[in-house]
Amino acid sequence: MLLAQPQLAALEGGLIVSAQAYPGEAMRDPRTMAQVAAASVVGGAVAVRVQGLADVQFTRSAVEVPVIGLFKDGHDGVFITPTLHHALAVAQAGAHIVALDGTRRERPDGRSLAETIAGVHAGSGALVMADCGSLDDALAAAEAGADLIGTTLAGYSGERPKTEGPDLELIAQIAAAGLERPLIAEGRIHTPAHARAAREAGAFAVVVGTAITHPSSITSWFDAELRR
């Protein structure tokens, strides 16, 4: 389950694909998500990101690239891998990297972000990706020991407005901060041009989810354009 430094370095400049389906959707099956993840690797993904313990397990068996795992519990506040218990479960399911809420908000179990990250490192050896919503989040997450910094929660934590595409300003701010850890651009990256812009703004790697792995959303985009 351990990810060596050369493997992490190999992600630089690459595309990470997030394969997730929402509860109640036709594709909400761990085996389906693992197949989607495997198909994205064929297309060039250097890593994949999946949600749920079974999804992590099936995906680990389906791909040979690093797996970023998370566990969503709820829909509001801190719900992306919100506690140390969730984080360790994700690591034990086989995730090389555990993605968790990296904001400065209070966590449900009362632990600090630093305590949570230390617990993951000590309890599993997995790396930690902190999903942040602002520059201050990123600075605090780096101080807390996060191995990777993501912009996943930009526009969703209440600190920054929700941009139509990726928050390029935030990506540039974090990149300029010199945190000496990979900066992963994520959130509303819907086109290849968005992905390139995020990379040019300073991202180490780029995560794309909905635009690649969510047929319902993609179909609705085309449908809406045809009906205008």
UniProtKB/TrEMBL annotation:
Molecular function terms, GO-annotated: N-acylglucosamine-6-phosphate 2-epimerase activity
Free-text function comment from the UniProt entry: Converts N-acetylmannosamine-6-phosphate (ManNAc-6-P) to N-acetylglucosamine-6-phosphate (GlcNAc-6-P).
Class of the enzyme per the UniProt entry, highest EC level: isomerase
Record key words, sorted: Carbohydrate metabolism, Isomerase
Enzyme Commission number(s) of this protein: 5.1.3.9
GO biological process: carbohydrate metabolic process; N-acetylmannosamine catabolic process; N-acetylneuraminate catabolic process
InterPro entries named in the record: Aldolase_TIM, NanE, RibuloseP-bd_barrel
Gene Ontology CC terms: cytosol
Record-linked NCBIfam families: PRK01130.1
Name this polypeptide is given: Putative N-acetylmannosamine-6-phosphate 2-epimerase
Catalysed reactions, semicolon-separated: an N-acyl-D-glucosamine 6-phosphate = an N-acyl-D-mannosamine 6-phosphate
Pathway involvement of the protein, from the record: Amino-sugar metabolism; N-acetylneuraminate degradation; D-fructose 6-phosphate from N-acetylneuraminate: step 3/5
UniProt family annotation: Belongs to the NanE family.
Organism taxonomic ancestry: Bacteria, Bacillati, Actinomycetota, Actinomycetes, Micrococcales
